[in-house]
Amino acid sequence: MISSEILTSAIDNCSFLNYNNIVRKLTISSFDRKDRHMTTSSFWNFISAAEDEYSVHRKRIMAKFSLSAAETDIIMFLANNPGYDTAADISKVRRILKSQVSVSVKSLCEKGLLTGTYKDGNKKSVHLSLTAKAKPVVTYGKKEQSDFAAVL
Length: 152
Fold this sequence. Notes:
Blueprint: E1 2-3, H1 4-12, H2 20-25, E2 37-38, H3 40-65, H4 69-80, H5 87-94, H6 98-110, E3 114-118, E4 126-130, H7 135-151
Antiparallel strand pairs: 1-2, 3-4
């Protein structure tokens, strides 16, 4: 059995979306009413259903702005997680292959949605930032993320 506190913590720490609104929407019906625990099976069913639903909303962003899934994830990750701004951060936290992050970052830079800069003379780490051209993607993406949270 997984306690509601552990589930809440796990969901809050998911990196592809700020889950605070989703956690508030979890109903007690997902938990055993006696001890407020969720079974492992119920937990994974919830995660799977959430990923499937999020995929629907991510595809809307992809279609509207002609982006790949990884490009969409990277833009929304950078918008939602300002403290994580390197390709290594994205790969580690989002668990996207480094090669896929590299290809997607290059593509986003070519599209003018992303720029990379070196900070404090460190030539090893490129810090990524969204450009003004990415603002419509982020605005629409956050709307889709809110719509997703409302579904849950």
